[in-house]
Amino acid sequence: MMQFTGNNGKQVELASGTAGDVLDALGLKKGAIAAKIDGCAVDLSRVVERGGEAAPILPESDEGLDILRHSAAHLMAQAVAQMYPGTRYGVGPSIKDGFYYDMEIPGGITEDDLPKIEKEMHRIAKRSVPVERRVLSKAEALEWFKAKNDPYKVEIISELEDETVTLYVQGEYADLCRGPHVPNTSFVRHFKLLSVAGAYWRGDEKNIMLTRVYGTAFGDEESLAA
Predict the structure, then answer these.
(1) What is the pLDDT of residue 226?
(2) Of 116, 196, 213, 220, which is the most buried if we count CB atoms within 10 A?
(3) What's the confidence (pLDDT) of residue 137?
(4) Phi, psi for 38 (deg, rounded to 5)
(5) Beta strand pairing status for 98-104 and 94-95?
(6) What is the DSSP string of 126-144?
(7) Predicted local confidence at residue 46, as pLDDT
(8) Residue segments in the chain with a per-residue pLDDT below the cut of 70
């Protein structure tokens, strides 16, 4: 049996389960988008292997905002993938006040296209598309992105020293990422795409210029509107 102590002081024992199961047993799951188990931030769907302290990661916390915004970047990339077939993806991190994604989009886009992309993002969010974590070998991950004709992800994976690679899959879209992420796309509802800029791949002017789309996301509409 594994023993868990919640940040509310409650203790439970479980023989097996996910991080979400742990929070649920502790009465801490409501509002959580991820969990912290034994000091490590994990997806709610992650199977726990040992006991320890447990706490919910809420969207209004700094850590929660980071996860939410990174998930929003993936949601935007998924929308772009559906609207602009053949798009190739660079990097899409969360940043201090939001997120961005560098993409090679066939035909390019302008800021006039952002409302259409937002609309598609909301459509995907309403479908509650599951966000699934997968662990592949480095060789498998390389084959995955070679098959998708994405040289930027192939370049990143080729330089990794680790022999395993973590992907997050939502619908037909997949991205290279350590996570954690929200359980499904419905958790990302309050967002805004802000601007479009050019960005050289890896910041090197000798490389191709990609399209960088900036956005932001929050856990509630009031914070987004502020």
Answers:
(1) 80
(2) 213
(3) 97
(4) 55, 40
(5) antiparallel
(6) HTT-B-EEEEEEHHHHHHH
(7) 97
(8) none
73 and 11 both lie in a single domain: no
Burial class (CB in 10 A: 0-12, 13-18, 19+), 211: buried
Angle at 147 between CA 127 and CA 71, to 5 degrees: 35
Where are the extended beta strands (E) located within the chain? 2-6, 11-14, 34-37, 40-42, 52-57, 88-89, 94-95, 98-104, 132-137, 164-170, 173-176, 190-200, 209-218
pLDDT digits (tens, 9 = 90+) for 129-181: 999 999 999 999 999 999 999 999 999 999 999 999 999 999 999 999 999 99
CATH number of the domain residue 175 falls in = 3.30.980.10
194 with 109, same domain: the answer is: yes
Model pTM score = 0.95
- Per the structure, the count of domains in the chain is 2
What is the residue range of 160's domain? 63-225
Q: Which amino acid is at 191?
A: F
**Could you identify the residue written with the tokens 């070679």?**
146
Domain boundary among 57, 74, 93: 57
pLDDT score at 93? 94
- Ranges assigned E (strand) in 38-138: 40-42, 52-57, 88-89, 94-95, 98-104, 132-137
- Structure-token pair, residue 176: 């290279």
By CB atoms closer than 10 A (0-12, 13-18, 19+), residue 171 is: middle
Residues 52 and 144 in one domain: no
Q: Which amino acid is at 11?
A: Q
- 114 shares a domain with 38: no
